[in-house]
Amino acid sequence: MKLIRFGEPGRERPGLQLPDGSRVDASAFGSDYDEAFFGGDGLDRLAAWAARDAARASRVDPSTRLGPPIGRPSKIVCVGLNYRDHAAESGMDIPKEPVVFFKATSSLAGPNDNLIIPRGSTKVDWEVELAVVIRGRASYVTVEQAARHVAGYVLHNDYSERSFQLERGGQWVKGKSADTFAPLGPFLATPDEVGDAARLEMWLTVNGHMRQRSSTANMIFNVIELISYISGFMTLLPGDVISTGTPAGVGLGMKPSPLYLKAGDEVALGIDGLGESRQRVVPFA
Ligand code: ZN
Description:
Mean pLDDT: 97
Largest sheet: 5 strands, mixed
Strand order of the largest sheet: 5-4-16-9-10
Bound molecules: zinc ion
Number of helices: 7
Number of strands: 18
Helix content: 10-25%
Strand content: 25-35%
CATH topology of the largest domain: Fumarylacetoacetate hydrolase, domain 2
Structural class: alpha+beta
CATH architecture of the largest domain: Alpha-Beta Complex
CATH superfamily of the largest domain: Fumarylacetoacetase-like, C-terminal domain
Order of helices and strands: EEEHHEHEEEEEHEEHEEHEEHEEE
Distance between the termini: 38 Å
Shape: globular
């Protein structure tokens, strides 16, 4: 299944994207895609609803805004330096253990919403990433148990303000958490839709120029290892997001000098099987 949410920001309704690409309203299913949904048998009940009712559910107009495909989670956990090529371009050693940081959940946005340059910002950067949404409560799960905690996969752009992140002291969270810095979607794909999550091509363009092109095969720690690892430090609640890191090609790594986003720029990105998203960069108003 491909889960979507659509409508005005903060008032999204649940829906599904059908195999033919059309989108239907799943409001009649009776639940948002939130912690209760992912913590119980929501995905199974939704599959049963879809088999019975999706074909005659009302269609969502293609021009309707898409929101993030999940309700606001308790956490967005991010993994840093998780691609060999990105660690190399950053001049960093390959980490011995996953580098983990947070992103504020208020940074969540729809996949095609504008990216707003935060107040005082000079170094807004892009990061195409595979994100995983958690099913059930995951606490001290083993690698063998971790796969059952994958609700699905979703395309994420882990926008980053490099001066806030790296030049203002303290934790990376300051550079990762501005409003609109976590466009998620277009849809959450259940694992059966995705196949091998360790072999997905991914790409990102800025104003039509290819900036990132890689594969999840270049990850240092894979999805299953990350779920197990992170669950040893915190309980992952149903619906939580783990964003698994970005490959080479971010603005910070560009030679001879870094390149950052400015108002009017257009960022587009995609991952095999997870669709595409597009953000227009606008100034803080
Ligand atoms: Zn990232």
